[in-house]
Amino acid sequence: MRADKARNREAVLAAVGRLLDEATDPDEVSMDAVAAAAGVGKGTIFRGFGDRATLIRTLYDERVARELTVPPDGDSPADTALALLTRVWTFKQRHRGLTLALERDGQGSPYRTAGYERLHAALTDLLSRARGPANARFLAHALLAAVRSDLVEHLRQEPGTDPLAGLRDLVHHTFRP
Questions:
Q1: Please, what is the average pLDDT of the chain?
Q2: CA 136 – CA 77 distance, rounded (Å)
């Protein structure tokens, strides 16, 4: 990759990340705002990423790869899964604007990202080890649905709810043979 292209790519990703991190409503982060914040033309963004959904998926996949590693095996598959899902919950709180933008964008389906596929595969493996392979793939999707950004956002506004305690109960019930 040419040096200027790589520099522009990093500037655009940093700009969209900063704007989404600061946004009250991530849908209001426009390509014009990203271009201005990155100090590039809008055409540079479209040539480098194609569209807003791809730009958001690229940033999401980079942050997931950097920050959301699968934890080492714990005392049990359920403990490892709980540690992983707690990390996902915390990640989605920290990157609220980005994860909401990804999940709201029809083309940017969170189910079609490298990060989601890696998390799903890890949970499927843990469930298969704990309870056998029957329904493991579905149950892994269901567990990941419990940490969707729209739910994280909704529960952020709901007083008296302890989402992490609920997540712990869900994981332990799901992992029973």
A1: 90
A2: 13
